[in-house]
Predict the structure.
Amino acid sequence: MIDLKNRYEVLIKKVQHLGNRITELEEENFKLKRAKDEGVGDKMKKAKKEIEQLKKDMSLMDEGLQAEILAKDKEIGRLMKKVNDKR
């Protein structure tokens, strides 16, 4: 009977230990999920900022190209006039 009582107490301690371990693991799992979610959120914010910067860069490049096209058109017009005047 003493062996059963000791065995019971040992098993109760193991169950308590396992319960504590489960709680620790659940807390760790929650922290990991939160860290993952925050990491994804941070990556999304960074990606959005990068996209906005790329859009601005493209807009500036487009403006530059438009100005260059106008300058080339004017040059072509000037050269065509020069050629036509020589005829």
Notes: Residues 41 and 47 are 10 Å apart (CA to CA). The first helix runs from residue 2 to 86.
